[in-house]
């Protein structure tokens, strides 16, 4: 069992229960970052809420999808506590950019307008066909019911820095309809990982094959422990 606790940073809108099976397969102490109480919270507000809920001591961040943006801000607020950051099909921003401006052209130009006009909850059809592609119908229905829209500032507020951590890793998902593999590899390159795993399945590997994802996290923790204590 690692001495470093896990802090899970979920993708936008996703409920905590998506991590249940993956967490059950891990021995480490773990917490899922909650949403901040403020309805206009920006990335700093999300990062602060995550750290307030985190166990004491050193942390490994497991950042899924848009959670990669929050991970960057967490490493800014508490760099001495973050021993590792593992992106899971994650958006990895550069300093001074937001989630929206980290998207490829023309999405980075259109997304802020879409968020302003249509809100931050994606259409049900998009959740079924893209975000939750390959997940069984019962859990997709539950996911849609429990989906919680994030604040607009979650997507549009700029980061103060890039991800800073002693150990960085990235997990791709080969059949991801939400974040295509070519884009995942581009974000992974920004992170400059020393640990890399390629999984099968869609954008929600914690639902498609939680034990496969748990193995990747477990192996990453070993690398973190070896480097931090060497």
Q: Which of globular, elongated, flat, extended, rod-shaped describes the shape?
A: globular
How many domains? The number is: 1
**What structural class do you assign from the helix and strand content?**
alpha/beta
Low-confidence stretches: none
- Average pLDDT: 95
Q: What gyration radius follows from the Cα positions, in whole Å?
A: 16 Å
Question: Can you give the helix content as a percent range?
Answer: 40-55%
Number of strands: 6
Q: DSSP helix count?
A: 10
CATH class: Alpha Beta
CATH architecture: 3-Layer(aba) Sandwich
Question: Overview of this structure, please?
Answer:
The model has no long low-confidence stretch (mean pLDDT 95). This protein has one domain (5-228): Rossmann fold (3-Layer(aba) Sandwich). It has helices at 20-24, 43-53, 67-77, 107-118, 124-131, 137-146, 152-156, 181-191, 205-208, 210-228; strands at residues 5-9, 30-32, 59-64, 82-88, 167-173, 195-199. By secondary structure, the protein is an alpha/beta fold. Strand 5, helix 8 and strand 6 form a beta-alpha-beta unit. It has a 6-stranded parallel sheet with strand order 2-1-3-4-5-6, with helices on both faces. It contains 10 helices and 6 strands. It is globular. The longest helix is centred in the C-terminal third of the chain and has 19 residues, at 210-228.
